[in-house]
Structure formats: C-alpha cells, structure tokens
Amino acid sequence: MSAHVFQDFPQLVAALGEPPARCDLGPGQAQLAERAALASLDDETLFAGARVRDRALAKCCHSGLWLLYDSLDQSHELSQEIATTEGSYWHGIMHRREPDYANAKYWFRRVPQHPVYDMLKAESQQLASRHELDPPAQFLAASDPWDPNALVDLCEAVARGRSHCRALAEEVAMCEWRLLFAYCYAGAIGR
Question: For residue 20, with 0-12 CB atoms within 10 Å meaning exposed, 13-18 middle and 19 or more buried, which class applies?
C-alpha cells in the first residue's frame, strides 16, 4: 500500500482502531467489532470538530467508511441518497464489490471525470511497475486516462480466475478508497 489509509486522520484511528490492511475486491466480511463504532460516528468526531460545509460530501465520507469495513448495505443506503458525482463514485465502488459489475459500470458512467482520477492513475502506474501484469491488468501501466470500468473488469477477471493480479487490484482499490475519501473529507469541511 502506498500510504497508510488513515495517515491524515488520527481521530479515525482513535474512534475506529486500525483500518483494514487491504481493500477486499468482493463483499468481504462485515467487521462486527467496528459496526457499533461506525454507527455512533458523528460528524463532530469524524471531522475533528471542524464545521461541515458540504453535507453531501460528509455523507460520502460516512458511506466510504462503511464500505472500508465491509458493511456494503450501510454504505449503499447512504450512497444511493447522494445525488452528486462523489455519491455516484462511492455507489459504483460498492456495486463493484457486491459484485454487480454491470451496475457498477452504470454508476461509473455517472462519473465521467473526477479530480482523483489523475492521482489514481499515477499511483496505479507506480503500483503496477512492481508486478507482473496479465492482460486484464495491463491498463494500469498504460498512459491513457483513468478508466474506472477497466478496474471493474480487472476485479471481475480476478473473481473469475482470469487474472492472477489480485494483490495489485487490492492495492489499487485501497489507493482509490484513500484518494476519494481524502477528496470528500477536504471538500466536506472546505479545505
């Protein structure tokens, strides 16, 4: 992993403990120990006392945290209520993990461009340089713009045994989570 997922959010370590070491590509196992902490996590704690300026982005942060801890239903409940590009992005990630690949692509079509895409592409290229890539993963090394549907395809290929790049896909998914969460967090409090 290129950076600790909660590196810039010590209050989350205090409230939730250490985050998962990897991002599951599938539904994962809901982490029951964190469910109570997630359910009681309010904006005051999440945003370390900063005033929330964008409620939709704050809700995205909550959706992302539920997703990180493999509670897809709670994440979905929140993300489907957020009629923004970021809400669609979280919604797409949730369906990718469900796995409902066609539905994930539907939601990613609602995110034609996003500010995290360039950073995600650059970090994915660095991650890919440390792995032997099979055909479904080769898009990660290309100089093309980021394509969220290509990551959906890679996750599906891993799930169906057509790609050996599970570890790389998990690293990229965690990188995507970290970048999108940081973007939403900063936007929620107007940084």
Answer: middle
